[in-house]
């Protein structure tokens, strides 16, 4: 069975890219089809794999301001051909689901396209001239129409949580199967002793709500370390007081150390599934998270973490001030994360794909 993979952008390392890495572990000879690729921003982690990169990657703004090219992305993703393959597996947060093929197409959908359906202020918070934002908003209805049609193209949809499953049904009227995201529990094991700081790791984008965490810890005065990069980096740095440290993009080993040492992992976004929640728990560290979305499926309240009810600095301050790390057991937390181990993820994905392929043939 010759498998093609599809992914939108390899220009960062996040949860979707972790899933793609797992697909390559199942099918190492597969070729991934990409709208955009930047090997430096992905730390060369995908250099060894076969890639087909779209014509849009050569555009002048592709590596620096790719959001300005949204109008061309449907055309870029539809340009790929799959005649030589038996099956196509797309790893989609936005455009990848929209490939055109008569081959069996299975989509692992991380979310319905955020800026079209759930993030109404997406364009407002981008640091672009008003004229660009105004033009972008004019084309949202057109992109939304394309996006709905694109979501009808996969033969089957897999998603990461019941939370996203409900959104897929709401916006696309498609049924889906839940296979939770993978965690490398071998790479993320407890190490060292706890230290006197809190930790978060995230793309530094508006929808991740890292600004609310920064505001809370500015007032708390407690030590906070932040891993990750994104368009909000400089803004957040300018807001943060001296008790807050920005670490940039970290390797898995560096992440493991900070997950393990932290008193708790703090997260304020309404997350789709939350691989970082699970990585922290795999290292035996409790999570303090916004009690909505994927967090409710990844965290056992009072056993592996605690929830706050609102995405406000006041809610985070109250939860952190009352947080007692001594009531959490490292082994119990890790055991909870083991059910999400990447080997289990890969087994379920492989089984699903092979069953659907056998049924079609």
From TrEMBL:
SUPFAM superfamilies for the chain: UDP-Glycosyltransferase/glycogen phosphorylase (SSF53756)
Molecular functions per Gene Ontology: glycosyltransferase activity
UniProt-listed InterPro entries: Glyco_trans_1 (IPR001296), Glyco_trans_4-like_N (IPR028098), Glycosyltransferase_grp1 (IPR050194)
Glycosyl transferase family domain: residues covered: 191-323
Gene3D superfamilies (alphabetical): Glycogen Phosphorylase B (3.40.50.2000)
Residues of the Glycosyltransferase subfamily 4-like N-terminal domain: 13-186
Transmembrane intervals: none
PANTHER family reported in the protein's UniProt record: SULFOQUINOVOSYL TRANSFERASE SQD2
Entry protein name: Glycosyl transferase family 1 domain-containing protein
Lineage of the organism: Bacteria, Candidatus Doudnaibacteriota
